[in-house]
Amino acid sequence: MSSTSVTYKPLQFPDEIRLLVLQPARPGYDQPIKWRIKHERLCHKPQYEALSYVWDLGSAGGMKSFSRKTTPTNLSLALQHLRKQAEPDGRVLWIDALCINQKDVKERNHQVTQMGLIYSQAESVIVWLGVGN
Fold it and tell me: Is the pLDDT confidence value at 45 over 90?
């Protein structure tokens, strides 16, 4: 997962996480995926959904760029399908590949130890296997 186009602000607290706010798409438009990152503390019980998805393991060139951010192809498809048109403020998701600074080994290791808590506090966990045939 490349995060070269994403600028991560450091996490300040041991229970702090990043959440992705997925912007909705207008009906009938093939719009690029747009999202932003916000910081929350787990002790404040933020409302979010966690996304678990299949990475594009078989394709070395399987990266697409959306809204100046790089995401794996299968994750891009998940985000396209998960955009909610009825929520003008966007859908709040925790996605490991985008919410954890993958280049910061110390942060990544700490966030991995928090994943049980992150998933258990999510309102729901979405499992994305890919687009059906």
Answer: yes
Question: How many other C-beta atoms are found inside a 10 Å radius of the C-beta of residue 69?
Answer: 21
Q: How many domains does the chain have?
A: 1
Q: Are 23 and 35 in contact (CB under 8 A)?
A: yes
6 located within any domain = no
Range of the domain at 53: 16-57+64-128
Least confident of 17-21, 30-34, 53-57, 115-119: 53-57
pTM recorded for the entire structure? 0.80
* Dihedrals phi, psi of 96, to nearest 5 degrees: -50, -45
- Please report whether residue 89 resides in a domain: yes
